[in-house]
Amino acid sequence: MGQPYSLAEAIAYHQAGNLEIADGIYESLLNNEPLNVQLLSLRGLVAQSLLRFEHATEFFKRANQLLPNNPSIELQLGLLHTQMGELIVANGFYQQAIEHSPNPLDPLVNYGNNLTRLHLHQEAFKVYQEALKINPSNAQIYYNIGSMFLEAMNPDNAIWYLEESVRLDPANAVAWNSLGVARTEIGALKKAQDAYQKSVELDPQ
User: Are 118 and 137 within 8 A, CB to CB?
Assistant: First the structure.
């Protein structure tokens, strides 16, 4: 047997999508350093990518126990439980990450997204507004708010946020399409057609 693999090599395999090879190396390294939070988190990421949710949960929870109040681990637990469809559990982790992070943009946005999925539109709007205070030029947040207002059957507000989203990111075909939907709902058919046309030009599929 040759020289043992290094962490850098394992990460290279991971980034290249060779997840089983990467996980085998992580496992070997973790056997020598069972309290290594980075290795636990990396194994959690691989397991999550492979849809092995039970294993992913175990790795991230062990990491969280070893390094409590770490917003990166809490965010990852939120993302994991969101992927598992456990939105209430996920929101608890997002709230912890928001509390413990000096720059909680990602947990705020993901928390807002889950609140929207739960049809808690007023709460979602407040959370998104907090995210915009951190990054007021984030086109994705404006898009998320616009989509939330569309779902809440409030096309007038949706239009304002979707127009801001495409102003900041004019290459977003999905946002242009959503803007077309919102404009259609208020009867602004010519403007709606313009938005749909822009969406098709950007993404003919």
Answer: no
Residue 69 backbone zone (phi > 0: left; psi -120 to 50: alpha; other: beta):
left
Structure tokens at 64: 């969280």
Give residue-wise pLDDT tens across range 1-50: 355 789 999 999 999 999 999 999 999 999 999 999 999 999 999 999 99
3-state helix, strand, coil split of the chain in percent (to 5) is 75, 0, 25
Task: Assess contact for 166 and 172: CB atoms under 8 A.
Answer: yes
Tell me which amino acid residue 172 is. Answer: N
Report the interhelical angle of 19-32 vs 37-49 (nearest 10°).
Answer: 150
Contacts 24+ apart (CB under 8 A), 157-165: 158/182, 159/183, 159/186, 164/139, 165/139, 165/140
- Across 29-42, b (16+ Cβ under 10 Å) vs e yields bbeeeeebbebbbb
Distances (CA, A) of 124 to 10, 20, 108, 147: 39, 38, 9, 11
pTM: 0.91
